[in-house]
């Protein structure tokens, strides 16, 4: 059984691509990629690899807290066990970290 990974990215997705090329489908399964930027190339990279994506733009939520709660809920629904911040250029709220205790890595 492989580790179910969720990735947050804001830009080009080079770190995501490295994960897709080296561990995805082996000991790790990337099951969800979220971004705060609707045009982030990371979303295209994930889609090209068959990984579900979703955009969580801050303007779509009343606050950063609400956005982070929505991201956490989607990742939990996706069965994510470990979250990787791969070029995610936003601060993460304490409640997001609490949703994945000791299971968030920033690269």
Set down the secondary structure blueprint:
Elements: E1 3-8, H1 14-22, E2 28-35, H2 41-48, E3 53-55, H3 64-77, E4 82-85, H4 94-99, E5 104-106
Parallel strand pairs: 1-2, 1-4, 2-3, 4-5
Features:
five-stranded parallel beta sheet; alpha/beta; 5 strands; 107 residues
Task: Give your account of this protein's structure.
With 107 residues, the chain is of the alpha/beta class. It contains four helices and five strands; from the N terminus they run E-H-E-H-E-H-E-H-E. The protein has a five-stranded parallel beta sheet with strand order 3-2-1-4-5, with helices on one face. The longest helix has 14 residues. The protein starts with a strand and ends with a strand. The mean pLDDT is 96.
Briefly, what is this?
With 107 residues, the protein is α/β, with parallel strands linked by helices. The chain contains four helices and five strands; from the N terminus they run βαβαβαβαβ. β1 (3-8), α1 and β2 form a beta-alpha-beta unit.
């Amino acid at each position: 059984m492989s580790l179910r990974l969720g990735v947050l990215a804001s830009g080009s997705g080079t770190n995501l691509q490295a994960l897709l090329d080296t561990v995805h489908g082996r000991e790790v399964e990337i099951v969800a990629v979220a971004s705060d930027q609707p045009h982030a190339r990371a979303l295209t990279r994930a889609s090209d690899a068959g990984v579900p994506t979703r955009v969580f733009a801050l303007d779509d939520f009343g606050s950063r807290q609400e956005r982070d709660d929505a991201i956490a809920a989607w990742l939990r629904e996706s069965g994510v066990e470990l979250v990787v911040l791969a070029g995610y250029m936003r601060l993460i709220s304490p409640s997001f970290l609490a949703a994945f205790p000791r299971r968030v890595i920033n690269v």
